[in-house]
Amino acid sequence: MSDGKPAPEPSPQRTRRRRIVWIAVTVAGLVASAGVGAMLVSITRHKTEAKTTFVRLVEVGEDDTDAATWGTNWPLQYDGYKRTAIKTATRYGGHGGSEAMPDEKIERDPWLKRMFLGYAFSIDYRDRRGHAYMLVDQQSTDRLSKPQSGSCLHCHASVMPLYRKLGNGDVFAGMDATHKLTYQEASKELAAVGAAHPVSCVDCHDPKTMALRVTRPGFLRGIAALAASDAPVPAFTSIAEWRQAGRKGTYDANAEATRGEMRSFVCGQCHVEYYCSTKQPLTFPWGLGLSAEAIEAFWDQTKFPDGAPFSDYKHKETDAPILKAQHPEFELWSQGVHARAGVSCADCHMPYARMGATKISDHWVRSPLLNVNRACQTCHRVSEGELTARVAVIQDRNYALLQRGGVAIVDLIDTIVAAKAAGATPAQLAPAQALQRKAQWRLDFIAAENSMGFHAPQEAARILGEALDFARQGQLAARALLPAGPVLPAAPPPPPAPPTPPAPPPPAPPTPPTPTP
């Protein structure tokens, strides 16, 4: 009970403590409120960034085939693409010279010209250049002095707007229509739709999301046929899973493939073997598998629409029906250890790069030998010198086998020509001609593939060994038709020394060429 006396006043110290506690609680509340607010702002911002992962300064769509337009939004990637105009070369590939056009392969290796007699590649067959040149070099080749099909634009131009126009929206029908056009006619149509550009961003990326995608109808048909077959596909788990799930519908790479697979599939749209001429629509021959023998078997069972057996050309000297390999990088890679280990084309040819605070895929597409640190040493923890030495051993050995095969092919051709001159009939020559077809297919499979065997070293050496064997068997079969009877082939001369490594490329990137429609 109160005794009637007033309560004592709190001491100044106690009042000060209360004031401090009140201020602290108030500040803590304000800080907590600010923190919660900042967190909510951050969450909202990140959700927005997740919806729009890049800043769009210009809108791009399916008909924007000029990479420069996309470069406004994605300048770092475009800077890399522009550098594909720089002349680069390794010991066995590329173009490091200062002349306007690359060197002629058929002058450096005359046996190539002899192999291709009867085909336009005997007229003009040059070293490769970067993606920036892929259309202008095709427009400039002397092969156009002979009739060429409009199907050739499938891999050299950003051609999808043309396919949509020719097929009334159906890109497969549009692609099929181009084989009936000459190259010049198709080029005029391409220019008319404003798509006279080399392969561009829209060919591999969805313009809305920038997700990787396959656009080329030839690849989509080919990979679907591969999936529908029973051929082994150790490099493509999505195909194996699609098969195990009951093979429902048609395998669609854009819906089924993993992102890792897509980093190879977008390259496989063009860096492949295919038929590209006037007798039938462009065809990817994967219905029996991706190995050299599987593709050969596919072509052997193929008939042209008129019922004639398939061949790319008839050899001018021997009359043998020949298969011409294009550039089967995707197929040979699929048979190698890197593919089985899940290493994609982009991992080596477009490795990740740090640009300031940003990580991107380097769009300067080039040989890993020119970028060993980022292309190879992320996986192989050994010195650059050790890695390049390993590559040199692989490529030098395959080069030596390739050159021996070239000698054997020329010997085979000479012997068939001699047998024809001696009066051998077509029926008598047929076994030797069949062996020429088999030998040239294998030799060309590695000669046209741009890794000098590195993409699958043991497979490449095996294919070249078979090429040598078939060439010598064919030579013996033709010699048996000569008046002197069968004679063992002479020992071939030693192969030429490997080429001298090229000088380093110039550092400054020129502007990519702009093809004139």
Query: Unreliable runs, pLDDT <50, ≥5 residues?
Result: none
Give the termini distance in whole angstroms. Answer: 107 Å
The number of helices is 21
State the share of residues found in helices, binned by percent: 40-55%
> Can you list the strand order of the major beta sheet?
1-2
Q: Can you write the helix and strand succession as a string? A: HHHEEHHHHHHHHHHHEEHHHEEHHHH
Tally of DSSP β-strands: 6
The radius of gyration over CA amounts to 31 Å
Mean pLDDT: 91
Instruction: Find the structural class using helix and strand composition.
Output: mainly alpha
- Could you tell me the strand content as a percent range? under 5%
Largest sheet: 2 strands, antiparallel
